[in-house]
Amino acid sequence: MTTYTSIKKIRILLIVFGGVYLAAQLFNFSKVNDPVTEHIGSEYMSKYNVYALKTPDKILFAGEDVPIERWDVKESFDRELLVNTYWQSQTLLFIKRANRFFPIIEPILREEGIPDDFKYLALIESGLVQTIESPAGAVGIWQFMEGTAKDYGLEVGSEVDERYNVEKSTHAACNYLKDSYKKYGSWTLVAASYNSGRRFLDRQMQLQDAGNYFDLLLGEETGRYVFRIMAIKRIMENTDEFGFKYRESDLYVNIPTRKLKITGSVENFAFFAKENGINYKLLKFFNPWLRKAYLTNKYKKEYEITLPAKGYINFAFSEYKNPSDSVSVK
Questions:
Q1: Which residues contact 180 (CB under 8 A, 6 or more apart)?
Q2: What is the DSSP letter of 266?
Q3: How far is CA 36 from CA 26, 29, 30, 41, 306, in A?
Q4: Does 54 or 117 have the greater pLDDT score?
Q5: CA–CA separation, 76 vs 68, rounded Å?
Q6: CB-based contacts of 237, cutoff 8 Å, min separation 6
Q7: Of these four, 2, 165, 181, 229, which has the most CB atoms within 10 Å of its CB?
């Protein structure tokens, strides 16, 4: 009885071990011959490439020559070109949002006499997100700090914060940029000072005895800042060259709007929105500068509320003809 039991146990163990061995062999066979694995290991990898990008022989920023022939300038530009080309999701979002906001920003820049390239400064400041706020407290598309915003005529308070108003903040930014140009006489230095602040830039120019941006040793952020603007400009003006493919329907639409002037108080913006044929969500989308659900307007100031034009309140994209009528952002 004991011998028979032992033999039986040995047989069971042999069967178990045999089964495990066979399963292992089958797994290894399937792994070796798995078409997906082989595809990743050979054909797929032979077709997947990451390309170095060609640096143009000539670059202009706001009409000023960039000394791209210098190795340090070329490498700094190349870094930002690579980062922003291969950070595809972010750059594609930039392209989509630009279709909505550039048509608002561009005519104001022209009106104020600011080079068109500064629309890319707004883009890298905020990603063209109207409601963005930095850890330091800079707000809106142009990332104004509270003190600077007030200095340039923007209202900043608990109920109204015009740093979130795209049109008004763009006019204020233009005035700031013009003041900087009077001081520096160089649009490149103007752009750098927008990031670092004029006082810091002045100290560095004096300390380093340098008169232009490309000769200055600056911190990581400001040192990359102007190169990033130039790289984004290069990519967005040549999207197809950098591999960005999209249809007109992929871009965020530039929705026609109308203005409604108010000089009194508004007790409830939810009710106000419904009275004007929209909802509270859309009212705040078009007017992020309204910071509360009400407006006391103690001093009876005149404000312009932006509303979608009639017929463009809750439209389907198929019903909408994009005013730009273009596939790429130029």
A1: 189, 190, 193, 194, 198
A2: B
A3: 17, 13, 11, 9, 54
A4: 117
A5: 10
A6: 330
A7: 229
